[in-house]
Amino acid sequence: MKKVAFITGISGMVGSHLSDYLLENTNWDIHGLIRWRSPLDNISHLINQINNQDRVFLSYGDINDSISLLSILKKIKPDYVFHLAAQSYPLTSFESPLDTYNTNVIGTAKLLEALRAVKIDPIIHVCASSEVFGRVSKEKLPIKEDCTFHPASPYAISKVGTDLIGRYHAEAYGQKVITTRMFTHTGPRRGDVFAESSFAKQIAMIENDLIPPIIKVGNLNSLRTFADVRDAVRAYYMLVTINPTPGEYYNIGGDYVCTIKEMLNSLLKMSTVRNIQVQVDPIRLRPIDADLQIPDITKFSNHTGWKPQISFQKTMEDLLNYWRDKIAKGNLVLQR
Ligand code: A2R
User: Which of 114, 189, 276, 282 is the most exposed place for a label (fewest CB within 10 A)?
Assistant: First the structure.
């Protein structure tokens, strides 16, 4: 029998790349949870397959609406669940903390309770975040799984909830939940609110004379590893297929370490326009920040053999070209 994967957040950056990966590397059917007004840009290349009911299906609902989750799960009975749906942007969470808690904490509980209620026992990937570690001191780098949580935003707090709820359901009810804390991952389709995607978009706009040659930035000092989203979704596939161990939790991330400033400089070097100025924009600064985000991925690598394969240079080039393509096609993009 063909396996069925259920992806919450299929219209997001990660969900759309995960769909591409599963279509290419498995024969599974893919069902994505989608809200009635979700933008379809990230899955527009799958529309024909969706219309022809060829391995990709959309289920309308909302992670905050248990009734929709119950009826979808009863119908599709997934073998694998990838829970990616979230209010995913830390800076927005300072403005909309309640929506962030509701979607990321309560939504996760609703999904896991719905899975229990329909009495199915899929392997469930719960996606927390590296942001749970938050304000980490230098001595604790690289960050291991048991590093203390010190969240520095409502988003990060919400992901502590996501993480703990997932593990609780594995321990208390024997559900096959495995939790990940993925460190910064990016590439084509990255939301334009995230630093590297915003920089790439602004560069593409400058190259097309849509804005003056001034790039607006937030905190440039934060130290990160960058992973490619296509490596990240390969990790998620390996997570659920290579000796999946319920209740386990893993730190996963790239091996290219740099500050946000160095990442910006790499993108600026790729631009066809020289002498772009850099200007700090106070609205891009978080009240407090998670400054040191370097993972120790030994546990996950030892378990699955996963290692990042796509270089930082390629990820950034593909991200910049993604924005160049969008603008070349005449898409209007917001200045932010
Ligand atoms: O906002 P929409 O309608 O485009 O859908 C987003 C979905 N989502 C929801 N789905 C169902 N019910 C909700 N109440 C709800 N709220 C949000 O989550 C979209 O499909 C997805 C988020 O996509 P992105 O913002 O692009 O996040 P990304 O980078 O794909 O992150 C995936 C996961 C998240 O759990 C992050 O917190 C984590 O990786 O880093």
Answer: 282
In a domain, 86, yes or no: yes
CATH number for the domain harbouring residue 114: 3.40.50.720
127 in a structural domain: yes
pLDDT digits (tens, 9 = 90+) for 89-121: 999 999 999 999 999 999 999 999 999 999 999
109: domain range?
Answer: 4-186+228-252
The per-residue pLDDT for 241 is 98
Burial of 116-141, coded b for 16+ CB within 10 Å and e otherwise, reads: eeeebebbbbbbbbbbbbbebeeeeb
pLDDT tens digits for range 266-325: 999 999 999 999 999 988 887 777 788 999 999 999 999 999 999 999 999 999 999 999
Task: Name the closest-CA residue to atom 29, ligand 1.
Answer: 13
DSSP category for residue 262 = H
Structure tokens at 326: 């969008």
Token pair listed for 160: 């502590």
Which residues, judged by CB distance below 6 Å to any ligand atom, belong to the binding site of ligand 1? 8-9, 11-15, 33, 35, 38-39, 62-64, 84-88, 103, 107, 127, 129, 182, 191
Residue 306 in domain? no
Residue 267 placed within a domain: no
Sequence-distant (≥ 6) Cβ neighbours of residue 315 within 8 angstroms = 186, 187, 226, 227, 228
Rounded distance from Cα 45 to ligand 1 centre (Å): 19
